[in-house]
Design brief:
321 residues; alpha/beta; Inosine-uridine Nucleoside N-ribohydrolase, Chain A; two-stranded antiparallel sheet
């Protein structure tokens, strides 16, 4: 079986780092590029973290480019309280000395997607600023996209606020533009949100085993990333987070989704950045809804086999040389 071409868009980020490890090492994935955006950490840290993870995997061949330095309208706000001062767990891991590709992220994405012979699965794991700019600036790239699997939003819960998930809350306009563009361009879209995000978990003792197995390699980095989260939150296990969305590309059977209309709330005082997932089952309600149905219908992830994805991730990082 041929490998699936894939491109990540990240704001690395502890869990983005877990996702990059998986995408760079899984034999059924052909990681073509990783683009970076402001989010969990400032853009310069995101780029440095991304190059560092790829170097740990021996994947200096993967193109990396810097993108948007801030949200479209919002003031930027990072999540160092979650991810550490450097955005990647303050692990004191040897830093990459490489420089990113000179192209802007959306130019690199444009070139990869227009030049590909086989459509690419695009996996945004960050605020959707780069993706909104890409799809509205270069809509022809849609022909090079097999589907978009993004980590963001939720049907039921929030984390940045009681209503909103961080990636969407960080740049709600970008999320709204991306969903509208996907509807306009006919791009199949999967929303891997908070409803499933915390399902795949790795125990602290397993993380310590990974470090002992290969302290200076991908397994050691993976173990340190999990251990950092456990220690920061005083927990016996931690989520692989964004990596679950990449697991869903390799093993979609581990995810239960439902095709549902989705909008992004842009104006609410308490709900700005919320993904409004329409789960009504009687079309007659729409006749009395002044807004009508949302133009974007997504495959919304509602359940995940967490143990299955955790094992898939562990097998991949342990199997690396």
């Amino acid at each position: 079986m041929s490998s699936t071409p894939i491109v990540l868009d990240v704001d690395t980020g502890v869990d983005d780092a877990c996702a990059i490890l998986f995408a760079a090492l899984h034999p059924d994935l052909d990681l073509r590029a990783v683009t970076c955006v402001d989010g969990n950490a400032p853009l310069a840290d995101v780029v440095r973290n991304t190059l560092t993870v790829l170097d740990a995997c021996g994947r200096e061949d993967v193109l990396v480019a810097a993108g948007a330095e801030r949200p479209l309208l919002e003031e930027r706000a990072d999540a160092r309280h979650v991810h550490g001062d450097d955005g990647m767990g303050d692990l004191d891991w040897p830093r990459s000395e490489r420089r990113p590709d000179p192209r802007h992220a959306i130019e690199l994405l444009r070139d990869v997607l227009l030049e590909t012979a086989e459509p690419v699965t695009l996996v945004p794991l960050a605020p959707l600023t780069n993706i909104a700019l890409l799809l509205r600036t270069y809509p022809a790239v849609a022909r090079g996209i097999r589907r978009i699997v993004f980590m963001g939003g939720a049907a039921h819960v929030g984390n940045a606020t009681a209503s909103a998930e961080f990636n969407v809350f960080h740049d709600p306009e970008a999320a709204a533009i991306t969903l509208d563009a996907c509807a306009d361009l006919g791009i199949e879209t999967v929303m891997y949100g908070l409803d499933v995000f915390y399902g795949p978990r790795v125990a602290l003792d397993v993380a310590r085993d990974l470090v002992a197995l290969h302290a200076d390699g991908p397994a050691g980095l993976a173990g340190r990333l999990i251990a950092f989260q456990c220690e920061r939150f005083g927990a016996g296990s931690a989520t692989i987070g964004d990596a679950g969305a990449v697991c869903a590309v390799v093993d979609p059977e581990g995810l239960t989704t439902e095709r549902l209309p989705v909008r992004v709330e842009l104006a609410g005082t308490w709900s700005r950045g919320r993904t409004i997932v329409d789960r009504r089952d009687w079309d007659g309600n729409l006749a009395h809804d002044p807004h009508g149905q949302a133009p974007a219908s997504l495959d919304v992830a509602l359940e995940v086999d967490g143990a299955r994805y955790s094992r898939l991730w562990l097998d991949t990082v342990v199997g690396a040389p």
